[in-house]
Amino acid sequence: MKNTRLCDKLNHAVRNSRKVSAMAQDSAIKLDTGDLFPTMEIKTVEGDIMVLPDNLEGVWNVLLFYRGHRFFYLCY
Question: How far is residue 47's CA from residue 26's CA, in Å, rounded to a whole number?
Fold first, then answer.
């Protein structure tokens, strides 16, 4: 029972630590078929800077963006 209360407190703290509003869509530029990928710098998991699309190789590439704040603790 004691662990359950601790887990509940942790989950509540994580959920409320970053109140993020919905993403703004009005000013977002959406890519369409045939559009060039915009140049951007992103930080990798290892901490390096990657310049897109310059660092992409090949015709097809998959990019996975993890926002990083949608994590909830699992307690057993």
Answer: 31
pTM of this prediction? 0.42
How many domains does the chain contain in total? 1
Q: Residue 23 corresponds to which amino acid?
A: M
Per-residue pLDDT band at 71 (split at 50, 70, 90): low
User: How far, in Å, are 2, 12, 13, 14, 53 from residue 17 at the CA level?
Assistant: 22, 8, 6, 5, 33
CA 72 – CA 11 distance, rounded (Å): 6
Domain range spanning residue 16?
A: 1-28
> Is 6 contained in some domain?
yes
